[in-house]
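As agreed, record passed on underneath.
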Amino acid sequence: MNYTIMVIDDEQMILDMLRDQFEMEQYQVITAKSGEEALQKLIQQPDIILLDINMPGMDGLELCRAIRDHVACPILFLTARIEEADRVAGLRAGGDDYILKPFSLVELTARVEAHLRRESRIQQKISVRGFGDIVVDYAARTVSRNGRPIELSKVEFDIVELLSLHPGQVFNREAIYEQVRGFDGTADNTVVKEHIRRIRNKLGAQYIETVWGCGYKWVK
């Protein structure tokens, strides 16, 4: 399958470098130098988006918030920001992952491939499960309570999917981090804790239990 990747960055050198890299890997590549240009090109329906945070005018966080309700594909931030608050801001804006600049093209390509593999696996699921007053539809990637949808980001749903498919099983933060990113890297506890907090706020704290010193589990 030929995937379409959208790269959004105000630096032409980075756009050219990433276009060459992913075209070499047989991707269809869409590029945009601003948030405004990216909004116009979203009609081409990319399978994954690489998004620079630091852009003039509409920055990456603002753009991510603007498109997240209309775009279900993974969004990976490209950023030179390394502070915890910046990473959390990106996740709260609707991002799924982040790559620190300067980055390795080999690692970036592996991250993109891993996210797309996970998307493909998800699309093959056909089961629906109920837990108390909520229903998780794994094929449609939706969660509802008494028939009313609960809005979850892609990564939030990925965590709900992982835990709820294995009720009672304890997953440490490293395992959750690897599963939702689709890439075996060093675990970032900040990322996992923030997503768990947001899920509990939306679903209720009773579904995900903290097992102190071990991780988290879905309550049967």
Remarks:
- The chain is about 40% helix and 20% strand.
- The chain has a mean pLDDT of 86.
